[in-house]
Structure formats: structure tokens, C-alpha cells
Amino acid sequence: MNFRGNLRRLINEVGCDFIHPLPYPHVELFFWRPDDGTINFGDYLSVVVVDHLLRHFGYTLADEVPLQKRLFAIGSVLHYARNGDVVWGSGVNGRPGQGDLNRRVQTLDVRAVRGPRTLEILRRRGITVPEVFGDPALLIPRLFPNRFHPTATKRWVFVPNLHDLSLIDHTADTVVSPLGSWNRRIDAILEAELVLASSLHGIIVAEAFGIPARYVRLSSGESEFKYRDYYEGTGRFGIEFASSIDEGREMGGAARLNFDHRALMDAFPIDLWSGEN
After folding, report:
1. How far apart are CA 116 and CA 178, in angstroms?
2. How far, in Å, CA of 19 to CA of 65, rounded?
3. Contact of 267 with 88, CB cutoff 8 Å
């Protein structure tokens, strides 16, 4: 394994920020990054959403704050959590080796979680979890109300998970790679009348903008847990998955989500910056 890969794994594990080290108390936003330094747009949406919300309140991620904290906002990353971390919308992964919390974690400050399956795992650990559900990427249409617009110029697109990139022709016009800038991924997703995806955030972005979407399970690279957690957190149980792109096109989109945007927005932990409870 090369040095760069080892370094990136260390960054992910301990949550260090070697790009913008801050020598004073601040809120460190934790999000998953691929070992090779590329950008996986779904995970990077954590930065986009939190940064935009903070600016609305008059704060930034670079602010000095009363207490050093670490925030988990988007992604199936709670196996990286440590005692005292703050959770707003993240979820448990469910994949072998990443399916639960670290056994040493007993205390988390939870404001919202992705869905009821994550809630159940945390509560079994004795952690207090409010019944506020939703992936914060669902807020993007409300945070950027005049920026992104569905165009329906393509009948369908497919957004693969990273683990599925080798299984498809990712140069095809109907494929939206999950690697690259967040805004161009969203633009490309919004070109479709129907979004098929093994990328969870391909589904989430599409549904946030009212575009029908269907999970296509091309491989076992990801656990079903996080998809079920997201669907159930938006009021949908027993959603059927497609096993191929053709089957997904035949099935069409899943039932529309039932989601309380205001509850998730109100749960945003602005007190970490303001110091007010």
C-alpha cells in the first residue's frame, strides 16, 4: 500500500484536517474522503450544506468557537465517531466492519439521524436520539432555491456508487460519475426524467428535486442498510430494489418521499458556533 493511501486512511480515521489546520477551538466537520484524494460528491455535500447554513446565520467553519467539537452531518460514517461528537443527519453504514459504532463510544450529542435504523442502533447503545430524520442533502433545493433546475433533457441517467464504477462504462452519456464537483453532479442528475443509482446521494439529490429515482443494486459492495435507513427516514418502507439498469427503467421511480424539512433545519446545531443552548 502506498504512502498517500496510508496517509488518507489516517486522516479519515482520526478526522485530522491537514489542509486547513486551525490552532484554536473550532468545529471540525468530518466527512469521508477516498484514499486517493479524489472527491466523492455525496460525501462532499456535507461541506456544502453545513457551510451554506452557517453563512445564513453569519458564521463560518473557520470561526473560533467556545469549545472544540467534531460534527458529522452527511454520510454513513458513524463508525468513525468518538465520544462527544455531534451528529446531525449522518447514519450507520451497515457494511461488515463498519456496521455499528466503535465499541468504545458511549456518548454522542445527537440532533438528527438519517433514519430509524440508525436511531435504533444508537439507542441500543444507550445514546439519546430524537426522532428527527433525514439526510441533510435533502435541503439543497431550499438552500439554493434559484440555482438548480430540472431540465428533463434525458430519459434517464445512472449514478453509480464508487464500488460499481468498474462494472459499467462510466464514459457513457447516461452515466453520471460520483467523482467530481458537487454542482456539476447535481446539474447532470437534474437532466434526467428518471434517475437510477447505486449511489445513495444520486437517489437523494434526485428525490430532493422531485425527480423519480430507483436504487439499482449492481453489487454487494454496499450494505442494504443505509438505503433502507434513508427510505424509512423519509416515510417509505418495503421499497423494492432493481438488480439491473434495465429492470430499474422498467420499475420507474420509488414512491415519493414524506419528509419534514423544517424539523431537520431546526435541529441544525448552530449553538456549537453561537454558544447559546
Report:
1. 26
2. 19
3. yes
pLDDT digits (tens, 9 = 90+) for 129-154: 999 999 999 999 999 999 999 999 99
11 and 52, same domain (yes or no): yes
Same domain, 166 and 113: no
CA distance 226 to 130: 19
14 and 130 co-located in one domain: yes
Residue 254 and residue 234: Cα distance in Å, rounded?
A: 12
Q: Does a structural domain hold residue 221?
A: yes
Nearest to 202 by CA among 248, 145, 251, 237: 248
Q: Is residue 257 part of a domain?
A: no
Question: Do 133 and 157 belong to one domain?
Answer: no
Shared domain for 58 and 130, answered yes or no, is: yes
**H/E segment holding residue 29:** strand 27-30
- Is there a single domain that holds both residue 135 and residue 270? yes
Q: What is the largest CA-CA distance in the chain?
A: 54
| CA gap 150, 152 in Å, rounded | 6
pTM reported for the whole predicted model: 0.91
Strand segments, DSSP code E, in 35-162 are 69-72, 86-88, 109-112, 157-159
pLDDT at 18: 37
Domain shared by 93 and 219, yes or no:
no
Rounded to an integer, what distance in angstroms lies between the CA atom of residue 146 and that of residue 216? 30
CA 24 to chain centroid: 28
Is 224 part of a structural domain of the chain?
yes
User: Phi and psi of 123, rounded to 5°?
Assistant: -65, -35
